[in-house]
From TrEMBL:
PANTHER family recorded: N6-ADENOSINE-METHYLTRANSFERASE, N6-ADENOSINE-METHYLTRANSFERASE CATALYTIC SUBUNIT
Family in the record: Belongs to the MT-A70-like family.
Species this chain originates from: Peptoanaerobacter stomatis
Keyword field contains Chaperone: no
Matching SUPFAM superfamilies: S-adenosyl-L-methionine-dependent methyltransferases
Domain of life: Bacteria
GO molecular function: methyltransferase activity
GO terms, biological process: methylation
Keywords of this entry: Methyltransferase, S-adenosyl-L-methionine, Transferase
Protein's name according to its UniProt entry: SAM-binding domain protein
Length: 206
């Protein structure tokens, strides 16, 4: 990640992350690497995310279904407790709005999920936010913009940051190698132990 000086000294109540997962299968991994640099689960776990989180914080973390074990490892390494699936994105084709079907070693993949995990005792502000998102696919791996709006509606207008961001958004601080980062994140050695103690398998991408 790009090294920037700290511009935002405060801690955040909302973390929104779409990690650049590194897949085991060469063909799938090669396709991802054509669009952005990927990171291993160990590299992701090692990021010292705890230093930017408030004592009451909610994490929204994108994952594919095959990568669920690794997503749960990452949640634990970052100091959060898994609660539920915040959002399920059902993908449509861009042109005709029919259902999009990706690859799959079992069933053909269509949906992606955004997990919700907490630290401390964050409070929900709205009971009207739906889990379901139906939206066309965009450029490689880009998630629907409406997700950010739903997060703010659910949790309130709190200090928030998007990790591994690919764009800047009003009201959000950002961290990633495709944007001018608001913060730096160093490695925390203790996170390696947490990650390895909850070690699962490196799954195949659908």
């Amino acid at each position: 990640m790009r090294k920037e000086e700290y511009l935002i000294p405060r801690k955040f109540n909302i973390l929104y992350a779409d990690p650049p997962w590194k897949y085991e299968r060469n063909k799938v991994q090669g396709a991802a690497e054509n669009h952005y640099p990927t990171m291993s689960i160990e590299q992701l776990c090692a990021l010292d995310v705890e230093k930017i989180t408030d004592e009451n914080c909610t994490l929204f973390l994108w994952s594919t279904f095959p990568f669920l074990p690794e997503a749960l490892r990452l949640i634990k390494a970052w100091g959060f407790t898994y609660k539920t699936t915040a959002f399920v994105w059902l993908k449509q084709n861009r042109k005709n709005k029919d259902w999009f079907f990706g690859l799959g070693f079992w069933t053909r993949g269509n949906a992606e999920i955004c997990l919700l995990a907490t630290k401390g005792k964050p409070q929900r502000k709205s009971a009207k936010v739906s889990q379901l998102i139906i939206s066309p696919i965009d450029k490689h791996s880009k998630k629907p913009d409406i997700v950010r709006e739903k997060i703010v509606e659910l949790m309130g207008d709190l200090p928030r940051i998007e990790l591994f961001a690919r764009q800047t958004t009003p009201g959000w601080e950002v961290f990633g190698n495709e944007v001018k980062s608001s913060i730096t994140l160093s490695e925390k050695e203790e996170n390696y132990a947490v990650c390895n103690n909850s070690k699962g398998f490196i799954p195949h991408k659908e």
